[in-house]
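REQUEST FORM: STRUCTURE PREDICTION
Request ID: SP-0412
Submitted by: Lab K.M.
Chain count: 1
Length (residues): 238
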Amino acid sequence: MKTKNTPKHIAIIPDGNRRWAKKRRLSPWKGHYQGAKTFEKVLERAIELNIPYITFWGGSWDNLTRRPKREVSFLVRIYNQQFKRLSEDKRVRENRVKIKALGRWKEILPKKTQKIIKQAIEKTKDYNNFFLTFLLAYNGTDEIVECVRKIVKACNPKPIRVSEKTIKENLWTRRLPPVDLVIRTGCENDPHNSTGFMMWHTAYSQFHFTKTLFPDFKPKEFDKIIKDYSKRERRLGV
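STATUS: Completed
RESULT:
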């Protein structure tokens, strides 16, 4: 499937893993495991559609600090498996997919996990066909606060002129282009954003909210969303 107006940058908020597990009377981490399998299929489809930028919210700071320790431990195990798999994946190599991880993950994830993530980043650093960014221990509000702190520090000893460029250059996500489309799964009559998700890069984004819980999100539905996006008129504030 190809459209005349395929988005160049899609951000995915994969909501519903725990609810999926609860409906099946399974432990929450079973939902995260199934969600990881879904992610792989969606990524493969995005590459087939030649969508160069995919940003995936792999966990907020709150997810990794406020949820039960056992659930967080399983999330960490999934991170270990996923990043190791990606660093060795033939498809990643053949399609030259650059992997990045943004957020406060270095403050909270175990050293072993950090090492695995860094290895995936290092191994793909010279790739430039596709750009896969994971947001880990990421909150949009934290990103903006850190941005302001950097700018304040740069004003010492002399004030500097603050512009849109200044702000973007101090964001964690500064190397990413604007997000064309945000897909949030698992929205049951409550379409919403969370913790200022990529607030700078989504200023003019289109949004798609689906009731489908992320583990049940199929490439076929992904295709339909892309087709719907291609029919939309983006005014970009004009």
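NOTES: DSSP finds ten helices and six strands in the chain.
Reviewed by: T.R.
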